[in-house]
Amino acid sequence: MRENNTSIKGDQRAQSALTEGVRWASDLTRARQAGPSLSHKDWSQAGFSTAAVHAGTMDDEATGAVGTPIYQTSTFLLGDEQYRSVEEGYARDRFIYTRYGNPNQWALQTKLAALEGAESALVFSSGMAAITATVMALLDKGAHIVASNELYGGTYNLFNQEMPTMGISVSYVDPRDYEAIEAAIRPETQMMYFEALTNPLLKLVDVRRLADIAERKQVRLVIDGTFLPPVCCRMIEQGADIVIHSASKYLNGHSDLIAGAIMGSRKLVDMVWPRLLAFGGSLDPHACFMFERGLKTLAIRMAAHERSALSLASYLEKHPLVKRVYYPLLSTHPDHDLAQRVLRNGGGMIAFEISGGDTAALELLKHLKIPKQATSLGGVESLVSLPYNTSHAGYTSKQRLDMGINPGCVRLSVGIEDPEDLIADFDQALKAL
Amino acid sequence: MRNGISVTGLSEFVDEIKQNAEEGIAAYGVELNWQSGTRSKVKTLPMTIGTHRISRDFSWEIDEPRQLLGCNHAPNPQEYLLSGVGACIMVGFAVGASVMEIQLETLKVTVQGELNLAGFLNITPDVPVSFTELKYCIEVAGNGTPEQFEQLRQTALKQSPNAMTIMNQVSVVGDLIIK
Ligand SMILES: Cc1ncc(COP(=O)(O)O)c(C=O)c1O
Q1: N or C terminus: which one in chain B shows less Cβ crowding within 10 Å?
Q2: Which spans are transmembrane here (chain B) (predicted)?
């Protein structure tokens, strides 16, 4: 360390690898550490709500203002230390330019890493920016991906339309068929890519089992955890190498911004960071501030989502016009045993099938007064949509049937409204059919 | 980054291997398919570093000059061998310069060798088949002192897996599969 800490604008603990007399690689002294972060208090033993409120959040030193100030700047004053960090390759630990890093991004990243129990995190301007940067960071020319055959449409488009242009191929397999997943792995496979809970039928994947395959086959496991934020299940603990989120959903939780995030080891997140810089999907400081505020209530929001979703799912299951309900915490859910083992919270996503097919489903939507007809999920307000004319409109009805999406399938993101009100609303809407 | 090398990343990798020796194990392979005459096509096989596989989607051709009964369509095996040694020394030099905080301006490595084809052709049994000497020359410009560059030269050679494979000899084991 050649300068005193006050000159360091960034992570004080992160230092140059070079000291006097270094002759060869083995003399270098820097080891990887968690972060980067401005606050190094360890919240890993704290509960989710405590970590959500406190981890990463910094009070303003100059004024004593409580909460992370908004650093609405594109750039930072440069000094010797910053120049040095660029020259030696530790620029991620310093403030240089907001696309590279900004205190609001760091505050958020520290909070996300604490919630996931991960060493490092990055935030992005969308979930898709997070996915693109991650996938491109972990793959090489000629690589192959083994992915779920029930991916979010945007991810499927990236894999199906963009990856082949870059010489990367993808095989799609049933996320519950672990033998088929293993059989799909080839010598050039570098990544397994799955969603923790699928859309719309909420198949729960066994991340531990996938991680076991990944380890034996020497490939990376990437999990899109959007439907199951860390309060429900920590994917890194289960063995994922990187967990990706569309933070536009539960993590921010208020349907008022678009953002993405990844969490994982410092080693892998450091590999993604240069792609964030190159592809440019950085999150604006003001959006970070909103996201940080939203994230503070993640645990209590998830408790409310689960409470309302479980009540509503149980009610729907008994309704004569409802043929089938999918919710991981219902004993009738095909993955219920797994859910009991791995989920601390069942989340707020429900799918159900009503009698009368898509016409009846459309009619139901018209009569609902609380859930809004909109795509997206994970916000405080309930949102409802039909896969046949939204997320899965690109498929033929036969293809949808093959996937198990039957006519009359409704996807519901249960908000935090009182369960009695939601049940009463569904009761009147179903009566009107 | 100085010389385009992240000494931070290098340091962290070094530490990772110190913590877990398995992370330092690199396994490589190439596959050659005979095309015709003296010409072959090479492709890289997936590589592993530590516990992870890396796709290596590269291929190139190898041939001999007409004088050696080829078509002179590509470099020959000896040139690949020499370039493998030269590139390896060059990487070591650039890495060493970076950790010694030397900014390189230019760096050129030449590797030359001579062999007697009478050995390969077994015309004269006491003539060695192999190269009997390889000569390298490093031409460098940068802000290091002559002592530093000399130190770098020695380290680059001593730490070069390819140069050391040749200098220390390596056992070559093989199989034959008849289809
Ligand atoms: C599972 C899943 N992954 C990724 C995304 C993409 O996220 P974003 O819309 O924030 O780019 C979505 C968004 O709809 C999603 O549902």
Answers
A1: C
A2: none
Q: Which of A1, A15, A32, A271 to mutate to test the interface with B (most CBs of B within 10 A)?
A: A32
Q: What residues are paired with B34 via a beta bridge?
A: B40
A286 and A391 share a domain?
A: no
A258 lines ligand 1 (CB under 6 A): yes
Say if CB A255 and CB A246 are below 8 A apart.
no
Query: Domain boundary at A250, A270, A295, which?
Result: A295
Whether A126 is in the pocket of ligand 1, judged by its Cβ within 6 Å, is yes
Pocket of ligand 1 contains residue A378 by CB under 6 Å: no
Residue in B75, B81, B49 with CA at minimum distance from that of residue B62: B75
In this complex, do A25 and B8 lie within 8 Å of one another by their Cβ atoms?
no
Ligand 1 midpoint to CA A341 (Å): 26
Residue type, A254: H
pLDDT tens, position by position, A128-157: 999 999 999 999 999 999 999 999 999 999
Interface predicted TM-score (ipTM) of this complex, two decimals: 0.88
First to last CA, chain B: 52
Distance from CA of B53 to the nearest CA of A (A): 6
**What pTM, to 2 d.p., does this model score?**
0.95
* Residue A1: band (very low, low, confident or very high) from pLDDT cuts 50, 70, 90: very low
Neighboring chain A residues of B56 at a CB cutoff of 8 Å: 140, 142
What distance in Å separates the CA atoms of residue A245 and residue A298, rounded to the nearest whole number? 14
pLDDT in tens, B120-169: 999 999 999 999 999 999 999 999 999 999 999 999 999 999 999 999 98
The structural domains of chain B, ordered by start, are: 1-75 (3.30.300.20), 76-170 (3.30.300.20)
Structural domain boundaries, residue A251 = 44-295
Are A192 and A241 in contact by the 8 Å Cβ rule? The answer is no
Asked if B55 and A29 come within 8 Å (Cβ–Cβ), the reply is no
Q: How many CB pairs under 8 A join A and B?
A: 100
Given this model, what pLDDT does residue A391 score? 87
Q: Which residues of A touch B15 (CB under 8 A)?
A: 28, 30-32
Please report, for the domain that includes residue A73, its CATH number. 3.40.640.10
- Helical H segments across A59-126, by residue range: 80-88, 103-116
pLDDT at A13 (0 to 100): 94
Tokens matching residue A105? 């991004």
Domain boundary among A295, A318, A347: A295
